[in-house]
């Protein structure tokens, strides 16, 4: 092969591999909204919804939103609050944790949900140790990002048990196993 052609091909390949890939940032909001405790009013869902709208207006729109300590009855209020300016979200609420659940909001015009949706990481089939009872299990969804060459990744929210040191340790060990 002609030396000049080899040099040109090598130079083109070198330039292709040395170009930095320009990935589009993913804008993330994570927030413990502090659901009510017995005999304590720690959270007003209307105020939290207003604050979410303000965050979306001032600093958003966010691509991914993870909320913890969400009352199941408030998840619709929070979903509506973030859907401003024509941005639509797929919303998922966990089932574990009693009245303190977790919520994932995924921007629908950017991310495709892989599989059947969000799921909780559980003991057994995935050989992960997580306590039962009212302990929250990590909540995860697999996504493909249309703005970054359909990059597939997992978006997970977790909330460790506050008042039970043994359960908290088991949750942390389960996350490490995962």
Name the helix and strand elements from N-terminus to C-terminus, one letter apiece. Answer: HEHEHEEEEEH
Radius of gyration: 21 Å
Question: Counting H and I runs of at least 4 residues, what is the number of helices?
Answer: 4
Q: What's the shape?
A: globular
Which runs of at least 5 residues are low in confidence (pLDDT < 50)? 1-16
Mean model confidence by pLDDT: 81
Beta strand %: 25-35%
Strand order of the largest sheet: 1-2-4-3
Biggest sheet overview? 4 strands, mixed
Give the terminus-to-terminus CA distance: 51 Å
Count of strand segments: 7
Question: How helical, in percent, are the residues?
Answer: 25-40%
Global structural class: alpha+beta
Keywords:
single chain; 178 residues; four-stranded mixed β-sheet; three-stranded antiparallel β-sheet; 4 helices; 29% helix; 27% strand; globular
Structural account:
The chain has 178 residues and is an alpha+beta fold. The protein is 29% helix and 27% strand. The protein contains 4 helices and 7 strands, in the order αβαβαβββββα. The strands form 2 sheets. The chain has a 4-stranded mixed β-sheet with strand order 1-2-4-3, with helices on one face. It has a 3-stranded antiparallel β-sheet with strand order 5-6-7, with no helix packed on it. The longest helix has 16 residues, at 3-18. The protein is globular, with a radius of gyration of 21 Å.
